[in-house]
Amino acid sequence: MDWIGVIRHGESTGNVAREVAESGGHEVIDIRQRDADVPLSEEGERQGRALGRWFAAMPREQWPDVVVASPYRRAVDTAAHALRGHPRMLVDERLRDRELGVLDLLTTHGVAARYPDEVVRRRRLGKFYYRPPGGESWADVALRLRSLLRDLDGARVLLFAHEITPFLLRYLLECVPERDMLAYAHNSTVPNGSLTSWHREDGAWVLEREFDADHLVEHGAEPTETEDATTRSA
What highest taxon heads this organism's lineage (predicted)? Predict the structure, then answer.
């Protein structure tokens, strides 16, 4: 590879439900589907179509050689809107969102109310290594991303994934230290439909674009900054 980019999926109904639950002080996020089946919201569909118009206007030589999407519906549908008919569009489970185990569907308030011991354990272990019962740590997600990166074979590779992915790619590609990466994630939100990308320069990966969502505005959609529970609540 000499270029790699990651687009966060369009806004999902789960993102919207989480915002409602967190702002309302609820313990549980009202989502009926399993996480893998959560669809795009109406705004997310608009963001996906805007991505499609952006890529349609782009010279084909600037398209990625390989497109790899998380198997979760919100990522697959965003990729399909953006690059429908691309000859090498793959789905890989190693790009899936972080699994939260017993903390799934709980807000920050819900975790504190129902699992206070886990809040203490998380504080002691730190966010990167803390693994909820039945779930994954950030380090676990980094491990499967590292495995995926070894298997990618295109010169230009584009990923469609989740909010956690660009943070961990900075950790893996740029060797950003754990503390710095987590501080960066704490103070940043990845807009839905935004692009973060890197290119190789003298053998090293150099950050090229960071959470860039100008293409959405240019093609008729508004970027949203709804957060994922996987990067915030647990």
Answer: Bacteria
